[in-house]
Amino acid sequence: MAAVAEKPTKERLLSVLDDLEVLSRELIEMLSLSRAQKLPQPGEDTQILELLVQRDREFQELMGVAQQQGKVHQEMQQLEKEVEKRDSDIQQLQKQLKEAEHILATAVYQAKEKLKTIDKARKGSISSEEIIKYAHRISASNAVCAPLNWLPGDPRRPYPTDLEMRSGMLGHMANLPSNGVNGHLPGDALAAGRLPDVLAPHYPWQSSDVSVGMLPPHHGNDFNLEPPGHNKENEDDVEAMSTDSSSSSSDSD
Amino acid sequence: MAVAQPKLEKENEDCSLLPLVHDIIKCMDKESQDVHQELAKLKAKIQEAREQISNMPGIDSSPQEQQQQLATLREQVHTKNQLLQKYKSLCMFDVPKAS
User: What ipTM was estimated for this complex?
Assistant: First the structure.
C-alpha cells in the first residue's frame, strides 16, 4: 500500500481510467453477447459490474485528490515567487555589503599609512627654533647670497675662509698649522695676523651687541660655527640678516 | 465548507462514467439505434478525462511528496525572511555614489 501511495497521482488516475475503459468495454461486450446468444452469464457480468463501480469510485476519489493537489500547487507557486524575491533582496544586500567592505578596507589602509608617516615624523622631529636659527646663521654668513655692497675685489667669500676654519673648533681640534692653504691671503700676512683693517675678519660672534632673542648664550648644540670662548655679542648681524657680517678672505678677485 | 462539499460531490459525479455505461445498457435493452451514439459518448468522455488529467497541474507527485515540497518551501521563505530581518536590523552604511 505504501508503494501504491508513493506513485504520482497522475499515474494512478490514468491507470484507473484505463481500467474503467477496459471494464466498461468488457461489460458491454458481455451483455451484447449474452443478448445475442440468449444465454445468461453465470454472474460474470455482475462481477465485472462490481469492479466497474469500484474503479469508478476510486476514480472519483482520485480526481478529488488531484483538485486538492492543484490548489496546493498554486500555493507552492506563490511561495516560489516569494523565495525568488528574497533571493534577489539577499543578493542586493550582499552587493552593498561588499562595497562597504571595500570602502572600509581602503580607509583603514590609508589611515594606517598615515599613522606610520606621523610616527616616522615624530621620531625625526627637530625643534623649529633650531632650524630657524640655523637658517639665520647660514644667511648671516652670506653663504647663500652675496652682500648687497659686494664688488669684485671684495675679499669676502660665501664659504669659510682658511682663517675662519682655523679659528673654529675643527681648527683647534686638528691643530692645523697656520699657512695660507686656501691661497686667498699671503701666508706671511696671514701668519703674522697683520691684516689690513678692511680685510680684518669680522665674525658675527665678535659683535658687541647681544641679541637676546636669537642665540641664547648657553645654547651649545648643533651648528657651533664660532670657536669656543668667543662671545656672542654680534647678534645684531644675525638678527638683521645684515650684510655687515664679513668673512676674511685672503684673496681679492 | 457545507457549500463547497456539495459542489465537490457534483464535480466528482461529473467525472463518473457509470451514467454513460448505464445509458448504453438501457439502449441495449431497448435495442435502440442510439447504442452507437452512446458508445461514442463514452469514448469521448474517456478521452476528455485523459486530456483533463494531462493538463491538471501539481499531480506529477504524490500528495505526500507535494506536502513535503510545500513544507520545504515554507521553511525556505521563513529562513530567508529571518536572514533579511537580521541584516536590516544591523547598522547600515551609507554607500556613497561613485562620482
Answer: 0.79
